[in-house]
User: Fold this.
Amino acid sequence: GLRVLPSRRLYDRGPLFVRSELMHGRIPAPHAVFNPADAAQLGLADGDCIRLSAERASTQVWARVDEKAPPGVVLLPRRLNDDPMPTAPTAAQVQKVEEKRDVWTE
Assistant:
């Protein structure tokens, strides 16, 4: 199975940046990064909306496909939305979501 690896970004939706309209352009949309082989196995394409569940946390984000993600690992930048996220590497389940919601504002 896949393991989610929480990561940090320089610019996120934490309290220092979320109120600054100037910073909003530097904060990426909530996303998870998949290795191309894992994405193919899951039937995911770059830009698909997914639900990622790990531990007791669940979040809806955009899929990004990039070779920077090692096989078997999902890179999940923290604090890009308000959903609870795992704080340590853990097993994850991924589900493609057909009905998209605005993952930026929720």
Summary: The CA atoms of residues 5 and 42 lie 18 Å apart. The first helix runs from residue 21 to 24.
